[in-house]
Design brief:
single chain, 239 residues, alpha+beta, Arc Repressor Mutant, subunit A, Alpha-Beta Plaits, four-stranded antiparallel beta sheet, globular, disordered N terminus
Amino acid sequence: MSGHSHFKTVAATKNANDAKKGKIFSKMGRVITIAAKEKGGDPTKNPQLKAVIEKAKEFNMPKENIERAIKKGTGELAGEALEEVAFEGLGQGGIAVIIEGITDNKNRTLGEIKGILGQYEGKMAGEGSVRWMFDRKGLVIVNIEGKPKEELELLAIEAGADDIVLNKNVLEVFTQPELLESVKKNLEEKGLKIESYSLGWFAKEEITLDEKATQKAQKLFEALDENDAVQDIYSNAKL
């Protein structure tokens, strides 16, 4: 998977301490709230909400937390006035960075992101000045389960995939954004096990950094990931 995403980071923290888990649940709760607010609180009629709930369950987010987040989105419970935000920036070695998040105070979050970038030799970039370096795609992660590569590729193509990448024990299936749900469903109907699926920004070309710059870029991503508002981070750095 090109770039760096929030869920890649938290994947290594399933056994994290309570404070870290609390932060993860808080971030996921905000995504659930936004999804429920936009298209309703019924996951059977809201694919976006269903996907986020599935992800939350993978990280053992308590059922009551999920239900509370949904009710905040539908207005059944009082909650923060949340909005989605996206920022563009440049990092160590000139790498391009897209930062997406959910916040109750856009100006505060903007200041925090600007400060973090500056701390790690980066800076904010104007709207659109970085985004053109990326493509918006759907990504479905499929468990290989010992199936031959050729069979998997054929099944993915038949399901409507645009591109396929074999990565260790999983198959990365890329789709057009609007076809993500249908491709995922088609793959499931073909008997394949779906590990996860999501929309994201993928670099058209990746930049290779030297060791020192790579370490600084990783520290930047970690610092951004620690921010309560940040949900996803994408870059064109080849890490």
